[in-house]
């Protein structure tokens, strides 16, 4: 079979599998954007998992709340330099001074460069007199001058002010983003994008509550930062959906097919974008905070990592299904909800096929489409009977 004949079959059936694609494995097809995954048919898998995780997050927030840092809930922290002071001894000092040592937060920190060991003891807000009294008690316990025991006091009003400003910034951001998406794309996509962003924030906060991670001002900044990434990944998918929606505007095609085609076409791009963002953050968390000891980066990097993962997930398994389910209620697509393309037919659409091909092609079943695909395989090409050569005319 010649190249001309192969092209003729492809044009006649709108089926475009090639020999190279036949030989590729799962990861090869994923890398070259040749997948044919029925995302719409599996939409309840992703939505069900999201609902379960959100319920778990809400339950954790209601049951045990967040592990707020000193900057948010206020209080006093004493930093005691000592090579042998234990957690039990630090709590006993608080009990002797009339404070509840069992409710205190005690951390043992070691400087990797100097090897200096410091015990940090944190309690609720106290008066200046109590703060100085406990400072002297810790100094006597470890036999150092009182000036060597540093103390820091933060009012809870400061953390309340930060929280209120962050919430105001979040509301303004959501309103502006929703207005822009509704103007640039459509209001259904704006609603789905905002829902996915709220999903990411609530799920990220729930993970912090579930595992007891400390919430600091750096964590709040990171949460606000991940909203931009979540929005970007969602817009990438929606822009492709809008492009294909215009392409198939004159065709009676289920919206589920438009969504499936679009998501398969941008799947590798979304994965590459997510990996490119996650790997630097992961290195910052493992190398910077874990190996090099830059603990100040830990809260920010951890929140970014959690947010990037949830943002990548929500753009595919939350935002896109919500748009498809909303669009199917429109009169144009409502009558086509009963069926959508899968398997070889979906693969044909992903690779540029059109549901309005020739009359014979519109009546083709899934098995016939697969048969045409097999006819273009290398094995079929090798077993094809060659055409007789034309005799050259003698001069």
Question: How is this structure best described in words?
Answer:
There is one protein chain. This protein is of the alpha+beta class. The chain has three domains: 3-32 and 342-383, no CATH class; 43-67 and 158-333, Multidrug efflux transporter AcrB transmembrane fold; 75-154, Alpha-Beta Plaits, CATH 3.30.70.2040. Helix content is 65%, strand content 7%. The protein contains 17 helices and six strands. It has helices at 3-13, 19-23, 26-31, 43-63, 70-73, 87-96, 128-142, 156-184, 187-211, 217-247, 255-291, 298-327, 331-334, 343-350, 359-362, 366-375, 378-383; strands at 67-68, 75-81, 105-110, 117-123, 150-154, 214-215. The strands form two sheets. Strands 3-4-2-5 form a four-stranded antiparallel β-sheet. The chain has a two-stranded parallel sheet with strand order 1-6. β3 and β4 (117-123) form a beta hairpin. α4 (43-63) packs across α9 (187-211), α10 runs antiparallel to α11 and α11 (255-291) runs antiparallel to α12 (298-327). The longest helix is centred in the C-terminal third of the chain and has 37 residues, at 255-291. The chain starts with a helix and ends in a 12-residue tail after the last helix. The relative contact order is 0.14.
């Amino acid at each position: 079979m010649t190249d001309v004949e192969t092209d003729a079959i492809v044009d006649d059936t709108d089926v475009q599998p090639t020999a190279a694609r036949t030989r590729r494995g799962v990861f090869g097809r994923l890398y070259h954007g040749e997948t044919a995954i029925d995302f719409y048919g599996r939409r309840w898998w992703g939505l069900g998992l999201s609902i379960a995780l959100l319920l778990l997050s809400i339950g954790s927030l209601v049951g045990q709340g967040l592990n707020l840092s000193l900057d948010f809930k206020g209080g006093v922290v004493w930093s005691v330099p000592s090579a042998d002071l234990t957690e039990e001894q630090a709590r006993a000092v608080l009990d002797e001074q009339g404070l509840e040592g069992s409710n205190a937060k005690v951390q043992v920190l070691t400087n990797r460069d100097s090897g200096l060991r410091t015990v940090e003891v944190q309690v609720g807000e106290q008066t200046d007199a109590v703060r100085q009294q406990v400072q002297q008690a810790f100094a006597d316990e470890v036999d150092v001058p009182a000036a060597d025991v540093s103390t820091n006091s933060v009012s809870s009003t400061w953390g309340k002010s930060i929280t209120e400003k962050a919430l105001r910034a979040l509301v303004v951001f959501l309103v502006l983003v929703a207005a822009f998406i509704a103007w640039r794309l459509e209001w259904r996509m704006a609603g789905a994008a905002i829902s996915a962003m709220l999903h990411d924030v609530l799920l990220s906060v729930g993970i912090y509550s579930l595992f007891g991670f400390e919430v600091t001002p750096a964590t709040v900044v990171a949460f606000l930062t991940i909203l931009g990434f979540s929005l970007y990944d969602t817009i990438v998918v929606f822009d492709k959906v809008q492009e294909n929606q215009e392409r198939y505007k004159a065709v009676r095609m289920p919206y589920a097919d438009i969504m499936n085609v679009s998501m398969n076409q941008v799947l590798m791009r979304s994965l590459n974008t997510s990996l490119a963002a996650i790997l630097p953050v992961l290195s910052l968390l493992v190398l910077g905070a874990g190996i090099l000891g830059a603990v100040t980066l830990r809260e920010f990097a951890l929140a970014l990592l959690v947010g990037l993962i949830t943002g990548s997930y929500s753009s595919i398994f939350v935002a896109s299904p919500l748009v498809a389910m909303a669009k199917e209620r429109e009169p144009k697509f409502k009558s086509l909800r009963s069926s959508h393309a899968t398997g070889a037919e979906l693969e044909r659409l992903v690779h540029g096929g059109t549901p309005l091909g020739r009359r014979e092609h519109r009546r083709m079943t899934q098995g016939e489409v697969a048969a045409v695909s097999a006819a273009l395989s290398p094995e079929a090409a090798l077993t094809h009977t060659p055409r007789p050569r034309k005799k050259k005319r003698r001069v």
